[in-house]
Design brief:
about 160 residues, mainly alpha, about 75% helix, elongated, oxidoreductase activity, acting on metal ions, DPS_DNA-bd_CS, Ferritin-like_SF
């Protein structure tokens, strides 16, 4: 049998197939949110202006570099669960909960928008956690815990910049 007609190998990782597929759907949403936040943060890094330019330019670079590494971890977890990871703009646009930005906001609006984006990723990860936990999927739970911790920290840092 050639590779074009042979069925995909069975995935038996000790996770029920329905649970595995539900986890992959949640991870796909997390991947879309993470990639969308990455793009937005990189755009803001390029276009930020004003008296906090140097601080924000550097901070945004830290954020988007961290996001870039995270999208790979999430996509690889989807692959380890036996499914294909979404990867096109169209797929991400249909899966993400992050609101797109039109135009170029000022620095304070960028901070607020990225703070909300960080919180959105946390909510997406948290919504999936119980599903992964109930399926006894510890690797996904570990990934989600790490993502929530990181995004909660960055949401706090951004929120702190908005305080007087």
């Amino acid at each position: 049998m050639n590779s074009k007609t042979s069925p995909a190998p069975m995935v038996d990782l000790g996770i029920a197939d329905d649970d595995r597929k539900q986890i992959v759907e949640g991870l796909s949403r997390l991947l879309a949110d993470s990639y969308t936040l990455y793009l937005k943060t990189h755009q803001y890094h390029w276009n930020v202006t004003g008296p906090m330019f140097q601080t924000l330019h550097t901070m945004f670079m830290t954020l988007y570099n961290e996001q870039w590494l995270a999208v790979d971890l999430i996509a690889e977890r989807i692959r380890a669960l036996g499914e294909l990871a979404p990867g096109s703009y169209q797929q991400f646009a249909s899966l993400t909960s992050i609101t797109p930005t039109s135009g170029t906001p000022n620095a304070k609006e960028m901070i607020r928008d990225l703070m909300e984006g960080q919180a959105t990723v946390v909510r997406t990860a948290r919504a999936l956690f119980t599903v992964a936990e109930n399926a006894n999927d510890q690797p996904t739970c570990d990934l989600l815990t790490q993502r929530m911790q990181t995004h909660e920290k960055y949401a706090w840092m951004l929120r702190s910049l908005l305080e007087d």
